[in-house]
Write a structure and sequence with these properties.
- The complex is a heterotrimer of chains A (166), B (146) and C (853).
- Chain A is mainly β and 166 residues long.
- Chain A is 0% helix and 57% strand.
- In chain A, strands 1, 2, 3, 4, 5, 6, 7, 8, 9 and 10 form a ten-stranded antiparallel sheet that branches.
- Chain A starts with 8 loop residues before the first strand and ends in a 27-residue tail after the last strand.
- The C terminus of chain A is likely disordered.
- Helix content of chain B is 27%, strand content 38%.
- Chain B is an alpha/beta fold.
- Chain B has two helices and six strands; from the N terminus they run ββαββββα.
- Chain C starts with a strand and ends with a helix.
- Chain C has a 26-stranded antiparallel barrel.
- The longest helix of chain C is centred in the first third of the chain and has 8 residues.
- Chain C is elongated and about 110 Å long.
- Classes of the chains: A mainly beta (166), B alpha/beta (146), C mainly beta (853).
Chain lengths: 166, 146, 853
């Protein structure tokens, strides 16, 4: 949601190490980060800060997952991949390695995906090796009169560490 | 020289019940002859399911066999061709054949009405012959022991 | 001409109610004719087998020789143990049809038939998939092609999503998506949806309008169809796809062509604008049909083109404002167009059929024929089918024939119908003058008929009895006597079996007929007309055992005649009552040979019938049957009911049959003779001779059917004393395949006939086939018929040239000769008309009907 950025960030993890010179905090072991409707899970999450504010979140996992509801009337968007690099200022999520983004019944997959939440655009790329994974888009054509199916499960506010890694 | 009177090879029990289907859109001339022959040999026809004997096509045709001095018709050759299929009660086809019977007769164009009566009688004889061949093939089936 | 009553295939829907009885309701199908194609309404092939009486059954089923069974019921065993027979939609190739094409598993072990079609499998096996010259059109050469087509279309087995899965899957090298809006994809884009597949260099998917546009090297695939083009648009909801600057391949029909635009419509019709259509293989431009609009409709199995031009080797040859042709692969595929004939009497003859598929259950073929010496003959055949029956109206009209300077016309009505207990038949032909067929039957059709049937009848059948009311008259088109017309005839016959300790069968035949005749140029008893009531009750005791049979039979022939123009000295009202008593008996001896069973079947037939003077009775439908093995075991020497032969005779027959393990008879030989204990005085009118011989000649016959491709038969009549043959007939038929048929027959009767007929179809090379028919009449040392044809068949067209020399019937031996040229565009469906002289070559019709031999 647009007001997510002003929400507090909650993080649960097995361990955390912080490096003040680089401003990087590294959380490891079944890490869950939530901010408003955004939720990021992964084996490890790296938080980069400059000054007080967090500039980018880098989650790694097999796969790591990112989830957010872009707007009240939009469906929750899910993103999976080996490395999720979320630039909070540009609101641009770069996914590399088995990347996949899905929104409602539509889904995109490829070797590398750039998901720009401001412009709500998804650009997918395959790696150019011969048998590399190609971009694949699966959509459910909806007849114009049909209202797009609302994903009516409200985004669960992440409050405590017992959230399962959806 | 090894000949003996044919033993009583009566028809296997499952074969004693038969449903006979004929083509539609025209009357099958073979059906009454075949039905009477099957019934005379102890096979109940169209009295409940059992095996299926379906006459797929039955066709009578006539062609000139020889020509006379004036290049007109001397003899006609009649033929009846029947294509039938037999299915066991489970619906598996077990026999499919195309049989053909033929007769040739002297045609006299001055006695056309008598010739057409002769043709009718020859066709009946051919139907009886085909019915006998169908019966022998059917009776010879060895149904899988249920 | 060949007359026959083909019984077409069943289209009823019929279910078995809980195993009890059998309900067959009206077929509810809206378009009973939809699966009837042009070819189906023609008769099944007339395959001539041994000429003798008890001809062999074909020992083994011959799949190559199977006729198409469109519409035969598809009967499945249902849960309740009964039979439910659904109408068999040929387009879907029901099991019954499938089983007809495959060879039957050896009977007896009752395993089920292999349902897939071996013929199709062999086609792909020997295709050379490595030769990729035309791989983009899915076309691969066949190694060792045995037929004119040296290649075949093979579809790659692409994994298309299931039919019901509506989701759209697109693969590409890269994609840019406005979520919920427009997606642009680049690099080898592959789109899969609901049973079809689209490929292009780049694509745009608009999720709002569901419109997908694709550019560059388009390839559209769905089962059985390939479209290629530069641009394509498809609608994700309706699946409707438009491909521009396209070319297409319909694999199953081996059709291909190009088009400015190809639209794959929702109801899976294909519409093409400014397109071309051909069945020629990719590198062969022999012919094509270019048209401004062409619609292929697989549901109805038809293609319809508007302002179409036939181009042969790219030069326009003929223009059709509107042309329709079957594209269903069940159709035999030879569009008879045009056919050309020349005979010195009729001059040049050009025929070009037009075919109109007016509705699912009726169609029409108009064949204009130009005779340079006579004028324009318009021949038309209208066919109609409904659930009751099948009707055909054929007409011919030539206004002001320049040679005969009069109008010429022909009207033909054919109908067969049957529903429940009622059935009916009409076979009516009338022509303007006697010479119609000789002149206009075109030098291409063999027609020696003398009397044209004009007959209509209806029959009511019950389980034990049936009644037929018939009106049968004739139009005589040569100078033989005008026949007795049965106007009308009512026949009622019954057959009842009773178990009185021993099976007793009572049967009766009644025949009430009024015989009329044009008697102006007739004399004597030929002029007599009148009505006849004939009643023939019979009782028989059939005793059947596996080792033999004994059937005494007593029948009584009662007839009453009311006659007009009776000959002097005979009265107008005659009654006749004759008793006929017969005992038919026989034994069956058997022995087992290595893999055959041989039987020896002695037969004894004793016959006694009272002697009655019947000279006053005119021979309405009576003539003497010719001497034959079967004839020795008949109760009456005469046909019809106007003469009952007086017999005190015993006929003895000895025959031996050879059977394979499944009960099929592959050979039989038989000898029979009759011994007479009284002279035979009953003869036809005017014949006062008396047969005083005390034994008949010998009748011998034999046939051998070693395997289904070869049949031989011989029958002969040997003089009772000297054993020299008075009559001997020999016949051989060798049919190793649809495309190789040899038939030879020789028929001899002492100073009556000595005639040989040879008929052959033989391939000289995959493309070249020689065919011919030759009749030699040694008795009158003349050649009534000599025909030689050569056919060149490439993959998608055929040309036939034939020369024919024949003696016109009743022309005092005048010889006529004709040349004949015929083009056939394969894959355009055959038009019914154009009965060409080649149809009388044994096996030719079957070869035409199964064109993919």
């Amino acid at each position: 949601l647009p007001e997510d950025a002003r929400q507090p960030i909650h993080i649960t993890a097995d361990s955390a190490t912080r490096n003040d010179q680089t401003g990087i905090t590294l959380y490891k072991g079944d890490v869950l980060l939530t901010q408003g409707s955004m939720k990021v899970t992964g084996d490890s999450i790296e938080l980069r800060q400059s000054g007080r504010s967090v500039t980018s979140i880098i989650a790694k996992g097999g796969p790591a997952e990112f989830q957010q509801r872009p707007a009240a009337n939009k469906e929750v968007t899910h993103a999976y991949g080996e490395v999720l690099h979320y630039n909070i200022r540009t609101k641009e999520l770069e996914i590399t390695g088995q990347a996949k983004v899905s929104q409602g019944s539509d889904s995109f997959s490829g070797n590398r995906i750039i998901y720009d939440m401001n412009k709500s655009t998804v650009n997918a790329f395959s790696d150019n090796s011969a048998n590399g994974q190609r971009v694949q888009m699966i959509i459910q054509p909806k007849a114009p009169d049909q209202e797009p199916a609302q994903d009516n499960t409200p985004a669960s506010e992440a409050t405590s560490g017992d959230l399962n890694n959806q | 020289c090894g000949f003996h009177l044919r033993g009583s090879a009566d028809i296997a029990e499952p074969l004693r019940q038969l449903t006979l289907i004929t083509p539609e859109r025209s009357r099958s001339q073979l059906e009454p002859v075949l039905r009477r022959l099957l019934e005379a040999n102890g096979i109940a026809v169209n009295a409940g399911a059992g095996y299926l004997l379906q006459i797929i096509s039955e066709k009578r045709s006539r062609r000139e066999a020889t020509l006379g001095a004036n290049a007109d018709i001397d003899e006609y050759e009649l033929s009846t061709k029947v294509n039938f299929i037999v299915k066991d009660p489970q619906g598996n086809p077990v026999l499919q054949r195309t049989l053909l019977a033929e007769r040739t007769y002297d045609y006299d164009s001055d006695k056309e009405t008598a010739s057409s009566a002769q043709e009718a009688q020859l066709y009946i004889e051919m139907d009886q012959q085909l019915a006998n061949q169908i019966l022998r093939l059917y009776a010879n089936l060895k149904p899988a022991t249920p | 001409a060949e007359t026959d009553s083909g019984i077409r295939d069943a289209l009823w829907t019929c279910t078995m109610e809980n195993g009890q009885n059998w309900q067959c309701d009206q077929p509810d199908r809206t378009n009973p004719l939809a699966d009837q194609d042009k070819g189906q309404l023609q008769e099944a092939p007339a395959e001539a087998l041994p000429v003798t009486d008890n001809a062999a059954d074909t020992a083994t089923p011959d799949p190559a020789y199977q006729q198409q069974i469109s519409g035969a019921w598809l009967c499945e065993a249902n849960a309740s143990g009964g039979w439910s027979c659904l109408d068999n939609q040929p387009t879907t190739g029901g099991a019954a049809e499938q089983s007809s094409r495959t060879s039957v598993a050896a009977p007896g072990n009752a395993d089920s038939l292999s349902s897939d079609d071996p013929a199709a499998k062999t086609k792909t096996q020997n295709a050379d998939l490595s030769d990729i010259r035309y791989a983009e059109q899915d076309w691969y050469p066949i190694t060792g092609a045995s037929k004119a087509c040296y290649g075949v279309y093979i579809e790659p087995d692409s994994q298309l999503p299931a039919e019901d899965d509506d989701s759209l899957t697109v693969d590409a090298d890269s994609s840019e998506t406005q979520l919920g809006g427009l997606t642009r994809l680049e690099g080898n884009v592959e789109l899969r949806q609901r049973g079809h597949f689209l490929r292009s260099d780049s694509a745009e998917v608009d999720q709002i309008s569901n419109q997908i546009t694709m550019n560059g090297n388009i390839q559209y695939r769905e089962p059985g169809l390939l479209l290629r083009g530069s641009k394509a648009q498809t609608n994700a909801i309706s699946g409707e796809t438009v491909v521009s600057d396209a070319d297409y391949v319909v694999h199953e029909r081996s059709l291909r062509g190009e088009a400015k635009r190809i639209i794959r419509l929702k109801d899976n019709r294909i519409r093409m604008e400014h397109s071309s259509y051909t069945t020629c293989p990719p590198n062969d431009e022999s012919w094509k049909i270019a048209s401004s609009s062409l619609v292929l409709d697989p549901n109805r199995g038809f293609g319809t083109a508007r302002n179409a031009t036939l181009k042969v080797a790219d030069t326009p040859v003929f223009y059709f404002p509107y042309i329709e042709f079957p594209i269903d692969d069940l159709r035999h595929s030879g569009f008879l167009f045009p056919s050309l004939g020349y005979s010195n009497e009729d001059g040049l003859e050009l025929a070009a059929p037009y075919y109109f598929n007016l509705a699912p259950n009726y169609d029409d073929t108009l064949t204009p024929k130009v005779f340079t010496e006579r004028g324009l003959l318009l021949e038309n055949e209208f066919r109609h089918l409904n659930h009751y029956g099948k009707q055909t109206l054929s007409t011919g009209l030539l206004i002001d024939d320049t040679q005969a300077d009069r109008d010429r016309w022909l009207v033909g009505i054919d109908h067969t119908g049957s529903l429940g207990a009622w059935s009916s038949l009409v076979d009516y032909t009338a022509v303007s003058d006697k010479k119609y067929f000789d002149d206009l039957g075109s030098s291409l059709a063999v027609d020696r008929s003398t009397h044209l049937d004009q007959r209509a009848e209806t029959t009511y059948t019950r389980e034990h009895w049936s009644a037929t009311l018939r009106a049968h008259s004739y139009q005589t088109i040569n100078d033989s006597k005008s026949p007795y017309q049965r106007m009308p005839q009512l026949q009622v016959s019954g057959n009842y079996g009773y178990q009185l300790g021993q099976e007793v069968v009572f049967s009766y035949l009644t025949d009430m007929t009024r015989f009329e005749r044009k008697i102006d140029d007739l004399s004597g008893i030929d002029r007599v007309t009148g009505s006849r009531l004939h009643i023939q009750p019979a009782i028989s005791l059939p005793m059947l055992w596996s080792w033999g049979y004994l059937t005494p039979k007593m029948s009584y022939w009662l007839s009453h005649y009311d006659l007009q123009d009776q000959v002097a000295g005979q009265d107008d009202s005659i009654d006749r009552a004759t008793g006929v008593f017969s005992i038919d008996s026989g034994l069956v001896f058997e022995r087992q040979l290595d893999n055959y069973t041989q039987t020896v079947e002695p037969r004894l037939f004793t016959l006694y019938s009272q002697r009655q003077d019947q000279q006053g009775i005119p021979d309405f439908d009576t003539a003497e049957t010719d001497f034959s093995y079967q004839g020795l075991f008949r109760e009456n020497r005469f046909t019809g009911f106007d003469k009952v032969s007086d017999n005190q005779q015993i006929s003895v027959g000895l025959s031996s049959g050879f059977f394979t393990s499944d009960g099929s008879e592959i050979a039989r030989v038989g000898l029979a003779q009759a011994y007479y204990f009284a002279d035979r005085t009953v003869q036809l009118n005017g014949d006062t001779s008396v047969d005083t011989e005390d034994q008949s000649n010998y009748a011998a016959e034999a046939y051998w059917n070693p395997y289904s491709e070869l049949r031989l038969s011989v029958d002969t009549e040997l003089d009772r004393s000297g054993f020299n043959p008075l009559e001997s007939n020999f016949k051989v038929r060798y049919t190793p395949s649809l495309n190789k048929v040899i038939g030879f027959s020789y028929r001899y009767r002492e100073n009556v006939r000595s005639q040989a007929e040879l008929s052959f179809i033989w391939p000289l090379a995959p493309e070249w086939t020689l065919m011919g028919r030759w009749q030699e009449d040694m008795e009158h040392s003349q050649t009534p018929e000599a025909l030689l044809g050569l056919e060149y068949a490439s993959c998608c067209w055929k040309v036939r040239v034939a020369a024919r020399k024949w003696i016109e019937d009743d022309s005092g031996g005048r010889e006529d000769s004709a040349l004949f040229l015929q083009f056939i565009l394969k894959g355009l469906g055959t038009v019914g008309g154009g009965t060409s002289v080649l149809q009388d070559i044994i096996g030719f019709k079957e070869r035409e009907e199964n064109d993919d031999y």
